[in-house]
Amino acid sequence: MKKPPSAADLRGLARLATEATQNVTRIAEGVHQSVWSTLGMPEGDQPGKTRGITGLVYRSVLDITGAVGWGIDKAISGFESTLQPLLKAIDEAGPESPQRAAMIAALNGVLGDHLEASGNALQLPMTLRVDGQIVMTGDAQGQAIVEDELGAMTGVSGHLVLMLHGLCMNDLQWRSSKSSQSHADRLGAADDCTPVHIRYNSGRHISQNGRLLATLLQSLVDEWPVPVRSLSIIGHSMGGLLARSAFHYAAEAGLSWPSQCKAFVSLGTPHHGSPLERAGNWVDVILGSTRHTAPFAKLGQLRSAGITDLRFGNIRDEDWQDRDRFERSGDTRTAMPLPAGITCYTIAASTAPRPRAISDRIVGDGLVPVASALGQHEEGDRHLEFEPDKQFICYGCHHMQLLYHPEVTEKLLTWLAPLHAGGKALVE
């Protein structure tokens, strides 16, 4: 039986529907005025706006749509007190629906920055989770809130493995539907460590999430029920960039947790960007190149800040601040080396069944080229120095399969097992 949406879900979706209708109306008005301009008809009081009766019609559509959206929001709010006991009972009846979690995660990946800016109830806070329980939350001010569940945990290890998901994903997607065990499950069982999962709004700028993650990790280490002996971080796709960003901001703030971090592993991380996002950027440029198609460029610009950060792999505020993220430009990042004092590993994937220079370079895992995942760059200061024995290419594997591919699991066990020796739980 499907779990019905909560009042917050309904309210958030209603707001998005309202905003989508208004934006399509604005696009239509822009096209209308573009055509009229070629006939010598003047614009309205703003660029792309019509005037006279036509302008009145478009303004009426926008106003009515806004009023309807406001009415829906108020109606849902009015019924919420009645519905809340039922919704709470449904929530408490069992674990969270993977389907809802996947939908919300995808929505945050595509529109997360907008959801945050508009205060939409569908935006995801950053949370750290152990065995599905939230143990720490990042608040709107960028501070860590330690949940009661953290202090109540027993049977935990002093060796932690942090799992960072990628764009549009969530912490429940680290396993295949055909397998009951994930990378974290195998590491926890074989290496006697405690997996910690993150869930976050992947549509925000990576640097914003990186700064918050750095703060949460310090609180996690400080508040962990037993002394933390080691921390390993595994990041898939955007998650690898998020980890590098957190290392940067931790060092900038003088936080101590990086000194306890022994290993960092990136899986299919676009360290130097993804050609697909750069292609999306070209779509913006092409659509914006003529008067008639310029209004449609707004559709291409629905991509979140997190997505556009993947164009070249932005991990610092300076990589995107004071720049139009939809404007065609080259790679303006400041070179950022791998974190010092931490053993760094990387795993790339190729859909080719065996090594092939052309497919590795062009296709890679379907989303990220092998060279980008391995940190390779033709400019020396941008090249990431992963040692040869700490690199691995998984062939016959696409980007998402890195989340659960058995060859990846075995490589993680080989690399990380020596770090977790003697990690038996100190709290029973």
TrEMBL record:
Residues 156-283 form the GPI inositol-deacylase PGAP1-like alpha/beta domain. It comes from the Bacteria. InterPro entries: AB_hydrolase_fold, PGAP1-ab_dom-like. Pfam families: PGAP1. This is Permease. It comes from Allohahella marinimesophila. The lineage of its organism: Bacteria, Pseudomonadati, Pseudomonadota, Gammaproteobacteria, Oceanospirillales.
